[in-house]
């Protein structure tokens, strides 16, 4: 099978462990960000090669390769507040989040150029029905020149009216003024404000990334689904945010360094990346081919549908026995460990889990495929019956 690639990826970022982004909690394995507006997506591998040289002409005699790296880059045409928080490592606060309280506030800076009335400056037209001037924040009123520039002359000793819409004081009528002030958005209003807080201490984090695209088969031009999985990536915290009135609009680049990690369904080997190509045969049944990129090299498992079938293989499968399913313990578990007594099992087998919390922590939640297992204080072993599906075990350890 040969194929061509000329399609971008849709990408899902999933939390590696329980984490907050602003005031929103994302559980381990929960999707955090979905990108379906990408312009380009690039996967680039590199390795360092050193050589032993000698003899006449000092030619190369033997080579060693190492320091393998894999980088995945997505250029997104559009960006959401949560996307920018993921890219930059910033904190994110939304006044419209469920659970926000009246004490959760965002101060929004505003400027208005308007005319004065005798004794007042009315900003009602510049404010929405729920917005009020914040009397505790700085308010500056400056007279403007005929060309609109600031004169430097400031009106002082002004008071915010009781309804929060006007400024009152010793104000002459008929003057054009520039007003610099703040309004407050709270969780108890219907306001829609996202505040992204970038500080010097927080950086973009680690995520489990899954991307899907289309590979076109050469033989008949059919587009085949392809799934690309990066079990452990670190997003680089570099970004450029360009604002201009001409030229192409700004794009937002996510550059991710891949690290070895376990996929959800294979705990036997850490990989940098897995590429799955779903090749539909003439009968309509799907034959999957996986390409696993890992620190030691590239594995390409053979399939009977592939023209590169190994000589001597019959191309037919023997009569299958009972179906075996995988038991995977999530590598996003922190502050404790969970060990399963089996890595594979058939339906109906008993799986025993041994848990151990780190000092100062205790097990508060245990589940397989999101089915909860009752947690008992000071109990270290738990069991469940294997279902007819692959299983992912998750656990939460909290500080006691």
Provide the fold topology:
Blueprint lengths: L2 E3 L4 E6 L3 E3 L2 E3 L4 E5 L2 E17 L4 E18 L4 H8 L2 E4 L10 E11 L4 E3 L17 E5 L5 E6 L3 E2 L5 E3 L7 E11 L7 E4 L8 E12 L5 E13 L16 E7 L2 E3 L2 E6 L1 E8 L5 E9 L2 E3 L24 E6 L6 E5 L3 E3 L3 E8 L3 E8 L2 E3 L7 E5 L5 E9 L1
Parallel strand pairs: 25-32
Antiparallel strand pairs: 1-17, 2-5, 2-17, 3-4, 6-7, 7-19, 8-16, 9-15, 10-14, 11-12, 11-15, 13-14, 17-18, 18-19, 18-22, 20-21, 22-23, 23-24, 25-27, 26-28, 28-31, 29-30, 29-32
Descriptive report:
- The chain has 400 residues and is an all-beta fold.
- The protein has 3 domains: 3-47 and 63-95 and 201-299, Pnp Oxidase, Chain A (Roll), CATH 2.30.110; 105-192, Immunoglobulin-like (Sandwich); 324-399, Immunoglobulin-like (Sandwich), CATH 2.60.40.
- The chain is 2% helix and 53% strand.
- It has 1 helix and 32 strands.
- The protein has one helix at 81-88, and strands at 3-5, 10-15, 19-21, 24-26, 31-35, 38-54, 59-76, 91-94, 105-115, 120-122, 140-144, 150-155, 159-160, 166-168, 176-186, 194-197, 206-217, 223-235, 252-258, 261-263, 266-271, 273-280, 286-294, 297-299, 324-329, 336-340, 344-346, 350-357, 361-368, 371-373, 381-385, 391-399.
- Strands 1, 2, 5, 6, 7, 17, 18, 19, 22, 23 and 24 form an 11-stranded antiparallel sheet that branches. The chain has a 5-stranded mixed sheet with strand order 27-25-32-29-30, with no helix packed on it. Strands 9-15-11-12 form a 4-stranded antiparallel sheet, with no helix packed on it.
- The longest helix is centred in the first third of the chain and has 8 residues, at 81-88.
- It is extended.
- The model is unreliable at 98-103, 282-287 and 296-319 (pLDDT under 50).
């Amino acid at each position: 099978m040969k194929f061509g690639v000329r399609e971008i990826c849709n990408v899902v970022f999933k939390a590696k462990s329980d984490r907050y982004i602003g005031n929103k909690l994302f559980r381990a394995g929960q999707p955090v960000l979905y990108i379906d507006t990408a312009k380009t997506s690039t996967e680039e591998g590199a390795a360092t090669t050193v050589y032993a040289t000698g003899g006449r002409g000092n030619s190369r005699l033997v080579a060693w390769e190492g320091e393998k790296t894999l980088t995945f880059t997505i250029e997104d045409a559009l960006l959401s507040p949560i996307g920018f928080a993921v890219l930059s490592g910033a904190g994110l606060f939304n006044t419209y989040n469920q659970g926000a309280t009246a004490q959760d506030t965002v101060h929004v800076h505003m400027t208005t150029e308007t005319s004065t009335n005798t004794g007042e400056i009315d900003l009602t037209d510049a404010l929405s029905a729920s917005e009020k001037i914040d009397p505790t924040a700085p308010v500056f009123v400056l007279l403007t020149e005929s060309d609109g520039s600031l004169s430097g002359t400031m009106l002082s000793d002004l008071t915010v009216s009781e309804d929060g819409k006007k400024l009152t004081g010793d104000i002459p009528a008929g003057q054009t003024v520039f007003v610099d002030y703040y309004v407050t958005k709270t969780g108890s209003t219907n306001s829609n404000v996202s505040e992204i807080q970038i500080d010097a201490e927080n950086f973009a984090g680690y995520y489990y990334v899954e991307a899907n695209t289309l590979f076109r088969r050469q033989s008949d031009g059919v587009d085949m689904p392809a799934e690309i999985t990066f079990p452990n990536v670190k997003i680089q915290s570099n970004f450029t945010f360009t604002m201009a009135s001409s030229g192409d609009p700004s794009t937002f680049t996510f550059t991710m360094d891949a690290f070895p990690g376990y996929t959800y369904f294979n705990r036997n080997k850490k990989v940098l990346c897995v590429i799955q190509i779903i090749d539909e045969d003439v009968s309509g049944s799907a034959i999957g081919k996986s390409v696993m990129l890992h620190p030691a090299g590239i594995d390409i498992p053979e399939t009977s549908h592939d023209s590169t079938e190994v000589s001597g293989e019959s191309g037919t499968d023997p009569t299958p026995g009972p179906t075996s399913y995988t038991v995977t313990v999530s590598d996003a578990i922190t502050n404790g460990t969970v060990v399963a007594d089996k890595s594979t099992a058939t339906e109906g087998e008993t799986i025993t889990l041994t848990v151990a919390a780190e000092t100062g922590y205790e097990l508060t939640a245990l589940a397989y495929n999101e089915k909860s297992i009752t947690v008992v204080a000071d109990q270290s072993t738990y069991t469940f019956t294997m279902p007819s599906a692959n299983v992912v075990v998750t656990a939460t350890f909290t500080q006691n």
